[in-house]
Design goal:
The two termini are 33 Å apart. It contains 18 helices and 34 strands. α6 packs across α7, α8 runs parallel beside α12 and α9 crosses α16. It is an alpha/beta fold. Among the domains are: 228 residues, Rossmann fold (3-Layer(aba) Sandwich), CATH 3.40.50.150; 189 residues, FAD/NAD(P)-binding domain. The strands form seven sheets. Strands 16, 17, 18, 25, 28, 29, 30, 31 and 32 form a nine-stranded mixed β-sheet that branches.
């Protein structure tokens, strides 16, 4: 469970050096934040020279503070004609500044334009890993809010340069503990360097024990010395089989042009990887992704489980990436709030849950029935969670936008009947046995269509039929009397669109009926009555709607990552009880089972897949990756025995 965040308390009385009240220490030297960053962290790591000509360069900082080291590094990258194509800046903070404090800290920044972008993109203070992209998608900030001892073991990234910038060891010893600094070695890429303003003996000894060759250098401002170091391990232990990621920039084949395939293709294209997306339909988003609108929001539970954290992280990432698209009309939708009716808890208990988890109001609020009705512009039937950044999206317009990229080739009307690996290439074949395409890396993102392409019954996928109902503004018998200004969800949902109200959706396992059913329209109207608190006595026989199928797993989390080797090929492995120890089929990946919350998960999940394929920093921690890893069911079977579905059999 995540530890609730406690934002920093900052004293700005000394304008030259703001200080942290709880640590009685300054955020940067009085000689200047940018000057310190350039002298200690950039020069101490041989930057910008070391990133010259690189495609990806990764920096990891311990102690984000006010973000000055990030801004100074971004500015150096911007001004360098030989800069790397992609700069990744990973940072963490146990006590991050509040948005207003960050804005105040950068009111007179040496880089005002960059500072304004950082302040505008600053994420809600939730205990998650937040990704933000700048410079047209070439500078990536991955900002983790939480304890260094929690996050360092969870980072998954090949780090080229370390910035050690916590408060002084005497004021914040937990940041400099030997066991913490030892964690850096696991993340160090070949040739990784390190710099810090602290030259304390305990820091030198801890770094030396972690195989860093430490050198003392001239310090900055009043500091006589600083440290620089290079990682020189005697031997480098290989990553577990399930954590050995690719480093490809070669083209990737993707089967499936729905939300999953489009999200992955978009994330790969953003990193400069060409993709060819194939789909059996004549247009993208024709299957489960083809509804006229879908919801986007996080979840709140008293137990902050991996399920809750995954959907919170997914919702926050989706809001960060899609809000601007909606604002400028590139994608059809609205992300200005969503209400989710709560049936199990009363309003006071809901508020206690939020207080216990210290979740911020810009992520979620607990509203009484009356306050929820005020947000909706009409009465709603119960207390509700208010997600200010939630809303609805037309998934078809989002898929089309994601696929509209010069790095993406779209091939429609093409069914893939069989896949086969020949040496280092994956080949796709049609029903006649003709080869359609070939590439070193293949991603299957075609919902339940993955089953016939992989081993029979290899995946514990469930398939549910869902029917939505369309209520036009004017119906026989009079106009609609209840149209909320924002989406209302709970037991079913209601979304006001141009011309009417979309409500739904039913969920029936193993139901293959394609035709609309009057009985299912009635079920949707019954759910609408529970949301609105008013009866819906309509003739259901003439109502419109749409039928589609969702694919999901028993734990309602997606399947992401490398496909496990067949069980017989893994039999010699000594450990298989965790997904990280499950060996994978080279070049073959999976993205499936988004279920009924595809819009909430797709952007984040696509970036996870892109990171795994390209070997770039993952936008989630290892605990969340374990929760969604495609090999988790094979690991569960290894732990509990054959009673579990033999996913890798």
């Amino acid at each position: 469970m995540s530890v609730p965040l406690q934002p920093a308390r900052i004293d700005f009385s000394d304008a030259s050096a703001p200080s942290a009240i709880d640590f009685a220490d300054v955020y940067h030297a009085r000689g200047g934040a940018f000057e310190q960053a350039r002298h200690v962290f950039l020069a101490g790591n041989g930057l910008p020279l070391r990133w010259a000509g690189r495609h990806h360069f990764v920096v990891l900082e311990t102690g984000f503070g006010l973000g000055n080291n990030f801004l100074a590094t971004w500015a150096a990258w911007r001004d360098d004609g030989a800069r790397c194509a992609h700069l990744w800046f990973l940072s963490l903070d146990k006590h991050p500044p509040r948005p207003d404090d960050l804005r105040r800290a950068h009111a007179h920044s040496a880089e005002p334009e960059l500072a304004r972008e950082l302040v505008a993109a600053y994420p809600p203070l939730t205990p998650d890993l937040h990704r933000r992209d700048f410079a047209h998608g070439r500078v990536h900030l991955l900002l983790a809010f939480g304890d260094v001892a929690t996050w360092l073991p969870q980072w998954m990234a090949p780090v080229d340069a370390f910035y050690l910038d916590g408060f002084a060891p005497a004021r914040n010893p937990a940041m400099w503990e030997p066991r913490v600094l030892k964690r850096l070695a696991r993340l160090a890429a070949p040739g990784a360097t390190l710099a810090t303003w602290s030259s304390a003996r305990t820091v030198r000894d801890a770094l030396a024990a972690a195989d860093f060759d430490v050198q003392r250098q001239a310090g900055f401002d009043h500091k006589r010395e600083m440290l620089s170091a290079r990682h020189s391990p005697q031997h480098r232990a290989p990553a577990p089989p399930g954590r050995r990621y690719g480093s490809t920039r070669a083209p990737v084949l993707i089967v499936g042009a729905g939300l999953a395939g489009a999200a992955a293709a978009h994330a790969l294209a953003a990193l400069g990887v060409s993709c060819r997306v194939l789909d059996a339909n004549r247009a993208p988003a024709e299957g489960g992704s083809g509804q006229p609108a879908g919801l986007l929001h996080g979840v709140v539970h008293a137990e902050d489980s991996p399920h809750t954290r995954w959907f919170r992280a997914g919702a926050l990432r989706a809001q960060a990436t899609l809000s601007s698209l909606v604002t400028r009309g590139a994608v059809h939708g609205r992300l200005d709030g969503l209400l989710r009716i709560e049936r199990a808890l009363d309003h006071e208990t809901m508020q206690r849950v939020l207080d216990a988890q210290a979740l911020p109001a810009d992520y979620v609020q607990a509203l009484s029935s009356a306050d929820a009705g005020a947000c909706a512009g009409c009465a709603v039937n119960g207390a509700a969670w208010w997600f200010p950044g939630g809303g609805w999206i037309d998934p078809r317009s989002l898929v089309r936008h994601w696929l509209d990229d010069p790095c993406i080739e779209l091939t429609l009307g093409t069914s893939v009947a069989r896949i086969a690996c020949d040496g280092d290439a994956w080949n796709l074949f049609d029903v006649a046995g003709h080869r359609i395409a070939s590439a070193p890396t293949l991603l299957l993102a075609n919902a339940d269509g993955i089953q016939p392409l992989l081993r029979p019954d290899a995946w514990p996928l469930l398939r549910s039929r869902g029917q939505v109902t369309w209520l036009p503004t004017s119906l026989k018998g009079g106009p609609l009397g209840w149209q909320p200004d924002v989406p209302v969800a709970g037991d079913g949902y209601a979304i006001t669109l141009d011309g009417g109200l979309l409500c739904g959706a039913t969920s029936d396992l193993d139901d293959n009926e394609r035709a609309l059913r009057a009985a299912d329209h009635r079920r949707n109207l019954d759910a609408l009555q529970r949301l609105s608190g008013r009866p819906w006595a309509l003739a259901v026989e003439s109502l419109g709607g749409r039928v589609a199928w969702r694919v999901h797993t028993r734990d309602r989390l997606p399947l992401l990552g490398g496909v496990p080797l067949p069980a017989r090929e893994r039999a010699a492995q000594s450990r298989q009880e965790q997904s990280r120890f499950i060996a994978r089929t080279p070049g073959l990946h999976l993205f499936a089972a988004l279920g009924s919350r595809g819009l909430t998960q797709a952007a984040l999940a696509g970036e996870v897949l892109a990171a795994i394929i390209t070997g770039t920093p993952l936008p989630i921690g290892s605990a969340l990756l374990d929760a969604v890893d495609a090999a988790r069911f094979a690991a569960r079977a290894a732990r509990t025995g054959p009673a579990q579905p033999p996913e890798g059999a």
